[in-house]
Amino acid sequence: MLESQLLSAVTGKEVSEAELDTLGERIFNLNRAIILREGRKGREDDCLPKTQFMERIEPIADVFGMHNPELLLPGAGDEIISRKGKAVDREKFEGMLDEYYELRGWDRDTGFPKKEKLEELGLGWVKDGLQDKIV
Predict the structure, then answer these.
(1) Tens digits of residue pLDDT in 68-94
(2) DSSP state of 46
(3) Do the Cβ atoms of 16 and 4 come closer than 8 Å?
(4) What is the arithmetic mean of pLDDT over 94-116?
């Protein structure tokens, strides 16, 4: 609610929470269309590095691991968990991608926006530049 009030104050145009949600959804879909138009391959490119799916003893050599060597993250409730040496479960990752695509209104198999979703958001014109990538 605060965000819609801030946007209204800055633009001088009344924007409800629902309208703000729709604006955000339009942005995500336009971004997806742009990266597809520029050569990304949808689900094929929505992946993690292979090393993320491997159990390992050595620390991750990245900035997050450098500043957080135990790889502590928030867990359920007040629980603090460590991801040190743990691998991402590939099946769960793929399941989360399926769920994400469904929530976005994108095709589960390809990760491409569905024509109906683009039209629902007033972005029907976007499909003209993505004939082979719209389901």
Answers:
(1) 777 788 889 999 988 777 788 999 999
(2) S
(3) yes
(4) 96
